[in-house]
Design goal:
Chain lengths: ~230, ~230, ~50
C-alpha cells in the first residue's frame, strides 16, 4: 500500500500542477472574453468542471461502496470514504460558485433549475453520509453504514435529477439559464484543459485522503492490539 | 413469505399494545396540520387555490409524522436488543425488510386515512370523485416512503443517537417521491384525470420497485452486528 | 423583468478565490493530519523496537 502510494503520488502531483497551470494560462491569457457577460463568464471554466467532477465522485463512491459491501476489503472502504469527503467538498464549491456566477448572469443568486437543485440535494445526501460515519461506534460499523448510504445516494441521484427536471417543466423558469452561446475555439481548449485539471486535482485529493485513511486505520489497529496485549 | 408476515405481525402487535406510539404519531400529525392552518390562513389558501397549497401540507405532515413513526419502530427493538436476535435468526434478510416495511406501511396508511379527510376539511379542498384517485396516489407514494423509511430507519437505529440523523438521511433521498406526490395530489384535487400525471405515477411505481430491490441488496449489511 | 448583467470583476475574483481557498484549505487539513499520523506511526515503531 505504501509503495503504491509513493509510486503514484509524485507523478500525479507533478502532472496536476502542470495541467492546472496550463488551464489557468488558457483561461486568463488565451480564451477570448465573451461578448455579453465579459470576464465574469470565465467562472464557467471552473464551475462546470467542478460539477462534472462532483458527479464523477458520486460514481466512484458507488464503485467503492459496492466493492466494500461485496468484498469487505478495507481498501474499498477507504475509496468510499475519500470520495464521499472530497465529493462533498467539490459539491460545496459547486454550490458556492453557482450563485456567484448566477448573480451577474441571470440577476438572481439562486434558481430552482434542475442541475442546481439536484446538486443541493446531493450536497445534503453526502453531508448525511459524512455525518452518519461520524456517529458510528466502530470502524467496521462506519464502513458499512457509509457504504450502504453511499449506494442509496448514488443510485438515487439520477432519479432525483429526472424528477426535478420534470418538476421544473411544469413551472417555467421566469429568470434562468437561456441557451448558451456556442464555444469559440479558444474557449473550447480552455474548457477542456480546465476539465482535465479539476479531474486531476480531484484524483490527487482522493489519493491523499485514502493514504491518510490507511495510516489512521493502521494506527487505530496497532494501538488497539497493543492495548489488548498489555491488558 | 411467512417469515415476512410473522415479522410484520410482531411489529403491529407491539404497536397495538403500545397505543402510546400510535397516539403520539397521530397527535403529532394533527398538531402539524393545525400549525399549517395558522401558517397559511384560509383566505390566502382560497386566493391561491386550495389544490396548490394542500398537497404540500399533506405530504409535509405525512413526512414528519412518518419520521416519528419510523424512529419508534426501531426504538422498540433496540430497547430489547432484538435487532441482534433478528440478525442471528435464520430468516432471509429480504423477509425481515419486507416484514418491517409492511408494518411501517400499515402505520403510515392508517395515519393517512385519518389525515387526508381532516386536511381536506380544514382547508376546504374536498372535491367530488376525488376519493378513489386520491387513495391511489397516496398508497403509491406511501409505499415508497415506507420503504425508504424502513431502510434509513434501520441504518439510523444502528448508530448511537441515530434518530437525529433519520430526517437528514431520509428527506433528501425521498425528493423524487415528494415531487411526484405533490404533483399527483394537486392534479387530483384540481379534478384532472389520473392519466394526466401518468408519467409521475409510473416513475414512482418504478421507484417503489427499485427501492425494494436496493433494500434487498443492502439490508444484510445493515443488520450486521458490530 | 429585465435581467441585470453586472460586468464586475469582483464576482470573477471571489469565485476563483473561493475555489482556491477550498482546495488549498483541504490540502492543508490533509497535510496536517498526514504528518500527525506519520509521527504517530514512527512513535509506535520506536515502541515496538524498544519492546523487542
Amino acid at each position: 500500500m505504501r509503495r503504491a502510494f509513493a509510486l503514484v503520488y509524485g507523478p500525479l502531483l507533478g502532472v496536476t500542477a502542470v495541467v492546472t497551470g496550463a488551464a489557468l494560462a488558457l483561461i486568463f491569457l488565451v480564451a477570448p472574453e465573451e461578448r455579453v457577460m465579459g470576464a465574469v463568464q470565465k467562472l464557467f471554466y471552473i464551475h462546470v468542471p467542478l460539477a462534472f467532477v462532483t458527479f464523477l465522485a458520486v460514481f466512484v463512491l458507488l464503485v467503492g461502496a459496492l466493492g466494500y459491501l461485496g468484498t469487505r476489503r478495507p481498501v474499498w472502504d477507504r475509496l468510499a470514504r475519500a470520495t464521499s469527503e472530497v465529493g462533498w467538498l467539490f459539491c460545496t464549491l459547486v454550490l458556492v460558485t453557482g450563485p456567484i456566477w448566477a448573480r451577474p448572469a441571470w440577476g438572481v443568486w439562486w434558481t430552482w433549475e434542475a442541475k442546481l437543485t439536484t446538486t443541493l440535494v446531493l450536497w445534503l445526501l453526502l453531508a448525511g453520509i459524512l455525518l452518519a460515519r461520524g456517529y458510528a461506534t466502530t470502524p467496521e460499523q462506519g464502513a458499512r453504514v457509509g457504504a450502504v448510504l453511499g449506494v442509496i445516494a448514488a443510485l438515487d441521484v439520477p432519479i432525483i435529477y429526472k424528477a426535478v427536471d420534470w418538476w421544473r417543466g411544469q413551472h417555467p423558469i421566469v429568470f434562468g439559464p437561456g441557451k448558451s452561446d456556442p464555444l469559440a475555439p479558444g474557449m473550447r481548449a480552455a474548457f477542456l484543459v480546465a476539465m482535465l485539471a479539476v479531474t486531476l486535482v480531484f484524483a490527487l485529493l482522493v489519493v491523499l485522503r485514502m493514504r491518510l485513511a490507511a495510516l489512521e486505520d493502521a494506527i487505530v489497529a496497532a494501538e488497539d492490539a497493543a492495548w489488548r496485549s498489555s491488558s | 413469505m411467512r417469515a415476512a408476515s410473522a415479522i410484520a405481525a410482531k411489529d403491529l402487535r407491539i404497536e397495538g399494545r403500545t397505543l402510546r406510539t400510535a397516539a403520539a404519531t397521530g397527535l403529532f400529525a394533527l398538531v402539524v396540520l393545525v400549525v399549517f392552518a395558522f401558517a397559511f390562513d384560509l383566505d390566502t389558501v382560497r386566493r391561491l387555490g386550495a389544490p396548490r397549497v394542500v398537497p404540500g401540507v399533506i405530504w409535509i405532515t405525512l413526512a414528519f409524522s412518518a419520521l416519528v413513526g419510523f424512529t419508534r419502530s426501531y426504538e422498540l427493538e433496540r430497547q430489547r436488543d432484538a435487532i441482534a436476535a433478528l440478525a442471528i435468526a435464520p430468516i432471509d434478510r429480504g423477509a425481515v425488510f419486507a416484514g418491517k416495511c409492511a408494518a411501517n406501511l400499515a402505520m403510515l396508511l392508517t395515519l393517512a386515512a385519518v389525515l387526508l379527510p381532516l386536511t381536506l376539511v380544514f382547508f376546504d379542498a374536498g372535491r367530488e370523485g376525488a376519493a378513489l384517485p386520491l387513495v391511489a396516489v397516496t398508497v403509491l407514494h406511501t409505499v415508497g416512503l415506507a420503504e425508504l423509511g424502513t431502510l434509513f430507519g434501520a441504518v439510523a437505529s444502528r448508530l448511537a443517537r441515530g434518530e437525529a440523523l433519520l430526517a437528514v438521511l431520509l428527506l433528501p433521498a425521498a425528493t423524487p417521491l415528494f415531487l411526484s406526490a405533490v404533483q399527483c395530489t394537486r392534479g387530483v384535487l384540481e379534478g384532472a384525470p389520473l392519466s394526466d400525471n401518468a408519467r409521475w405515477m409510473l416513475v414512482t411505481a418504478g421507484c417503489d420497485v427499485l427501492y425494494f430491490l436496493v433494500a434487498l441488496l443492502v439490508f444484510e449489511s445493515v443488520l450486521e452486528e458490530g | 423583468m429585465e435581467v441585470v448583467v453586472v460586468k464586475s470583476y469582483a464576482f470573477l475574483f471571489w469565485g476563483y478565490l473561493v475555489v482556491w481557498a477550498g482546495i488549498v484549505g483541504y490540502l492543508a487539513f490533509l497535510g496536517a493530519r498526514l504528518s500527525r499520523a506519520v509521527r504517530r506511526v514512527e512513535a509506535l515503531e520506536r515502541r515496538l523496537d524498544s519492546a523487542r
